[in-house]
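Fresh eyes needed here. I'd like your take on this protein's tokenised backbone:
***
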Amino acid sequence: MSSLQDGIAVSREGRPGGSFALLCLDRTTGADLPAVRAGLSRLWSSCAGLQDGVLPNLSEPVDPEGLAVLVGFGPKLLVDTADGAPAELVATRFPAPGGRGRPVLPGATLRWAGEVRRNPADCDVVVQLTAASEAAVSRALVEVCRSVRQDGALCPTAVYPGFRRRDRRGWIGFHDGVSNPELSDRLDLLRVPDGSTPAWLRGGTYLAFLRVGVRLERWDAIEPAQQELVVGRHRETGAPLEVDPAAPDGYRPAHLPAPGDVFAAGNEEARDPRPVCADEPSGLGQSHVHRARRHLTERILRQGYDYLEPVAGPEVLRTGLNFVSFQSSPTRLARILTGPGWFGRSPFGGPDGEFTDLLEVYAAGMFALPPRAPAASAPAGCPGLDAIEPAVGAG
């Protein structure tokens, strides 16, 4: 069995439920690390019961609908612990927004939304909840917040709900998550290797979270053919685009061996694009998926969940993506976000920076996810609980 916590899809058959929430927690004023450690133990015990369908004040269990819970620790909490925060985690900590259009990381094209002044996702503890339905996630979320409030060591700072569409497309209309690696035999992409420091994180992973707004009015102004060229996939089938031999300056969707779209059984080998040179005349080499394919050493596991939320003003609704990724090192994602043209060639006739008119970030965080605790240590077996020990001189 994998040492990774639940809620991480190490195989296509083991995908977590289609409903999602990320709960951000901070230490309450005056709570020291021993109090936080005890609070995390009680929180994990409550979560273990929720995964079994056990609710407080109800004698009979309910259907948990595949509820999975994982817990991660932010650099803000770990810096005070005995081992301190992993150097990689500190180096990739998302800075405070600090002003309109500031990059989410130094050198990144992706930028903060103009109205964001603080980042609640830069928190001490994060709890990810996934289940088959929104109701199951919401029920667990309420119970977790109730438990935290009664305990008093941690307090909620933000919650970010989301969902995965059944048609497996994102708001821009294209298939989402097609090129995720099959990890059953490549867990090295996720697992923190033996020999890494701190020791309590070995066999665990790192979670990155970005709440990204997608301005559809900007995307919809782009011609459909240009949209395909930016993404590098055929809108209808999700097949990767390839150079058309009959029109060297043009492209066509790759052949899918089996009926249906790119996710249909039998089309596994056709999901990744064939190599295309960066300066290909059609522009295909500058598309998002072809750029990503040239950097296989930077592969991550991405688990995206769309969101839709009401906003004040004429827009009424904001569409976006909860970008969630898991990787053996946070610098892997940092290199992706800060690489030139990480999204693909800008369709707006200018530099890649003009994608800031399309995508904008509302929250971001990076977290260490210790491996699952041995079953024998439950209910105090919150992953990495032993790491939450105060440093010498810390309270």
User: Anything to note?
Assistant: The CA atoms of residues 148 and 205 lie 25 Å apart. The chain has one domain: 12-232+287-387. The chain has a mean pLDDT of 88. The chain is about 20% helix and 20% strand.
